C-alpha cells in the first residue's frame, strides 16, 4: 500500500492547530521518534479541531452539530473537498491501518457536549462519554506509537478512563461555570450534593463534597492500576509517551486528594521540575 507523504501545507496547518497543546501533552510526546511525534501532532490537530467545534458556544447548536456530522460522514464515506486537517487524518488512518470507527467515536463524543446542560445520570452513562473522548483517542494513539501486543488495547482503554476522570475532577469548577455537570447525578445524590451546589460554586457541604470527590478519585486510581497491570512488557518502549501521560495525571490526582479537592479555587498542575523528572526518568 502506498501511503501519501505529509504535504507541506498539511504539516504547517497541523502545527498551527496543535500549537495550543497543553504542556502535559508536549512533554509526553517529546520522547517519541520524530516521525511518530509528527504524526501524533497531526492526530492532536484532528482532536482539537472537532473539540473546538463542540466547545464554540458562540455558534448555534444546530450549526455545530452539522459541522460534526460533516466530519463523521467524511470519515465514513470520504471527504468531497478535504482540507489540510481532513487530508492528514485520512493519511494517518491509511498509514497505520486505524479503524475508521475510532475516529468516528471521537466525533460522537464531541457531539455529546452540544445542546443544553451536560448531565449523566449514572457512571455507566458517563463511561460511554469517557470511552469516546479519551479511550478511543488512546486506541488511535497506540497505533501511532507502534504498540502491537493485544493487551495494549486493554492498557489504552483503562488509561483513557483514568485520564478523563482526572480531568473531570480537576475541572469541576470550570465546567460548573459553563453549566456542565459531569459527575453522575446518582452519585451526587448518594453523597448529599445537589446540581445547584456544584453550579453555584460552593460544592455544598464541604465534608460531603470531599467524600464525593474522594469516591471519584478512588475510581480513577483503580483505572490507573488496571492500566499498569495490563501493560505488556513487549510494548513498554512503544508505550513510553502514554506511560508518561499516566504518571503526570496520576500525580495531579494525588495532588488534588492531598489538598482536599479545592477545585473551585485553583487549577491543579504539577511543577516543571517534576514534569522534567517524569520526562527524563519516568
Explain what this protein looks like in three dimensions.
The protein is 70% helix and 0% strand. The protein is globular, with a radius of gyration of 19 Å. With 282 residues, it is an all-alpha fold. The protein has helices spanning 8-18, 23-29, 34-55, 61-77, 84-96, 100-111, 123-145, 151-170, 172-177, 185-190, 195-199, 206-230, 240-258, 272-281. Helix 2 (23-29) packs antiparallel against helix 13 (240-258), helix 4 (61-77) packs antiparallel against helix 6 and helix 6 (100-111) packs antiparallel against helix 7 (123-145). The longest helix is centred in the last third of the chain and has 25 residues, at 206-230.
Briefly say what this structure is:
The protein is mainly α.
Describe how the helices and strands are arranged.
Elements: H1 8-18, H2 23-29, H3 34-55, H4 61-77, H5 84-96, H6 100-111, H7 123-145, H8 151-170, H9 172-177, H10 185-190, H11 195-199, H12 206-230, H13 240-258, H14 272-281
Strand residues, percent: under 5%
**Nearest-angstrom radius of gyration?**
19 Å
Quantity of strands, as a count: 0
Low-confidence stretches: none
Structural class: mainly alpha
The CATH topology label is: Farnesyl Diphosphate Synthase
Number of helices, where a helix is a run of at least 4 consecutive DSSP H or I residues: 14
The biggest beta sheet reads: none
Reading the helices and strands in chain order gives: HHHHHHHHHHHHHH
| Helical coverage, percent range | 55-70%
CATH superfamily: Farnesyl Diphosphate Synthase
Terminal CA distance: 36 Å
Tell me what the CATH architecture is: Orthogonal Bundle
* Overall tally of domains: 1
- The overall pLDDT average reads 89
Shape: globular
CATH class: Mainly Alpha
